[in-house]
């Protein structure tokens, strides 16, 4: 590797790292990621409280308070065993409803129980603001259970008989094709969790395409390209841009991981000091563990990282070759559109992978360069493909990179010093047909 090549690479890296834009952007990214990973602490700091309790005040005109309290405690305890973290307290009051309504606070719910000859039990629920769905569900179920018990006692119905009638039917499920037996919650997990994981890769790909093309276009616009190419070969020039840009996006990706780790460490310290995560977060994490998602990550992460690095190479090579045919940023914006759409298509295919259950088409797309880095990991997590399929995607991608380098250098060599105003696509096809190697 020549000194001129290393010098070009260092100059390109210096342009990327030693800028105010890089420093300011990373400060913003670090702050945003850390804040997002500690959103529960932020909400608590500004007045929110994930550990706050809802107090239920009961006016008992039906002599049913003890039974109702028993049902409330039972349902709330059942949910808390499932880590929903529902915190309810209940008390009986002898004050008038007008007096209680006047003094009712935001974290209080007033329930008036009344007897009824036809329906056995009726209830009036009063609150200052809308009751969250989970709390209202517990109250509603407790009231229904209380009403059922009262009705059974009045009509002398045996509890066992009623339970046998009202209990859900027993269904025995048999899955014949166990090789393709995927947890039914995986589709929901993939639609909510996986897009968040691949979003940074998608954004880094967009940055990479813009970076390679923008730098080459800048050198052509300022005519400095003529001086550079007179000292180094077009191949060395292209490879220096590709190497520098890939180093930059990989470093940027690692910085994002560092920011996330810092955010998680801060969040862990908060948890050790007594704070708790929102129930939605713990629920998603439990679903990930129970579905086998975490175990699959052990195998898929190394292969996915290889796919990502190879995809970065493929995107940057094509972006550099296309940029060599342009004379301004407007031309490059036109040429980079297909690359952007390919990347965007891969991102959406990864999100919608669950909709293509068993489809041969989506399996074929997992082998396609530019798409494989998005689609293959998501299909593997859903059980649609195996590790061998990801290996095939890697081999296909390596072969694709070799081909575009072999034939793309021809286009790059012809186009890098071409300043004609001919249509960009025409120049591209002519350069491809050229035998000037």
Automatic annotation (TrEMBL):
Q: Which PANTHER family does the UniProt record give?
A: MEMBRANE COMPONENT OF ABC TRANSPORTER YHHJ-RELATED, MULTIDRUG ABC TRANSPORTER PERMEASE YBHS-RELATED
Keyword terms, alphabetized:
Cell membrane, Coiled coil, Membrane, Transmembrane, Transmembrane helix
Q: What is this protein called?
A: ABC transporter permease
Name the coiled-coil region(s). 83-117
Q: What is the lineage of its organism?
A: Bacteria, Bacillati, Bacillota, Bacilli, Candidatus Onthousia
Cell membrane keyword on record: yes
Its Gene Ontology cellular component terms are:
plasma membrane
Q: Where in the cell is it found?
A: Cell membrane
Q: Which organism is it from?
A: Candidatus Onthousia faecipullorum
Limits of the ABC-2 type transporter transmembrane domain: 20-405
Concerning InterPro entries, the annotation shows:
ABC-2_transporter_component, ABC2_TM
Q: Which domain of life is it from?
A: Bacteria
Determine if Transport is one of this entry's keywords: no
- Which molecular function term from Gene Ontology is one that the record holds? ABC-type transporter activity
Transmembrane residue ranges: 21-46, 186-209, 243-266, 297-327, 339-365, 385-405
What is its membrane topology?
A: Multi-pass membrane protein
Matching Pfam families: ABC2_membrane_3
